[in-house]
């Protein structure tokens, strides 16, 4: 029996011979049987037993036997044990395996054309790899180079250069060229943000405005590697008053003057008269100043705005009577 299935004599790979002898004195019979079996590597775990049957008793089954089957190596397999992606500076561990019994214990590793022999082990490690270590790796049997296995190993890398970077100061109306250069082992994903808000594309500045000032960040990534760069753009300009207006307060007793200007750094304001309820706002280079006055006579009021680059001023007439 093989794995509890009966074997049949085929005269070639399975030959069974049986003999029966009879004791002349006791007339008892003795039966013996021999099996000649041509094994294959599939029989590594096969269990062989013999069974004796008799009409007057239960079947008798021998204990199972498992035989060591020796066979030559037919297949070599190379594995990359290091997790993907492999980045510059990582280690690459290669494992060479082969079938056969007994299995091989020593191998040749072909490291991009350079042979390395390892004995009594099946692992080889390359430490601190660089992009130059990308390529074809092989392993084979010591005495049979043609029986080999191949793996392609890619070492991931990402080189990025951004211009400009750091703090950038430009004048309003000027241009600014932003250049991003990248070199990578795979197609890189690029994301731009301004003041943490996502942009659709790489920023371009042909005629700078105050609203374009801000913190620009560039995130470049491939699987397993990420690079982040930034530049902070400051747009400066001489203050310019865009409008100087007046209107009556809601209670009709005061005059509210509004002076709107552009400039960077943020301009300081100087009014030619005293007033109350001074208000000021400054957003993206635009400044708004408000002054509440109670004129006792007709006045000419001057709004003057100043920063380190220069100044501008504008006058407005304010009448004491209601209007």
Automatic annotation (TrEMBL):
GO cellular component, one term: cell-cell junction
Listed SUPFAM superfamilies: Immunoglobulin (SSF48726)
UniProt xrefs under InterPro entries: CD80_C2-set, Cell_adhesion_signaling, Ig-like_dom, Ig-like_dom_sf, Ig-like_fold, Ig/MHC_CS, Ig_sub, Ig_sub2
Membrane topology: Single-pass type I membrane protein
Subcellular localization(s) per the UniProt record: Membrane
GO MF terms, alphabetically ordered: cell adhesion molecule binding
Domain Ig-like: 72-156, 239-317
One of the GO biological process terms: cell-cell adhesion
Keyword Disulfide bond on entry: yes
Keywords from the named record: Disulfide bond, Glycoprotein, Immunoglobulin domain, Membrane, Transmembrane, Transmembrane helix
Protein's UniProt name: Alcam
Organism the protein comes from: Triplophysa rosa (Cave loach)
Classification lineage: Eukaryota, Metazoa, Chordata, Craniata, Vertebrata
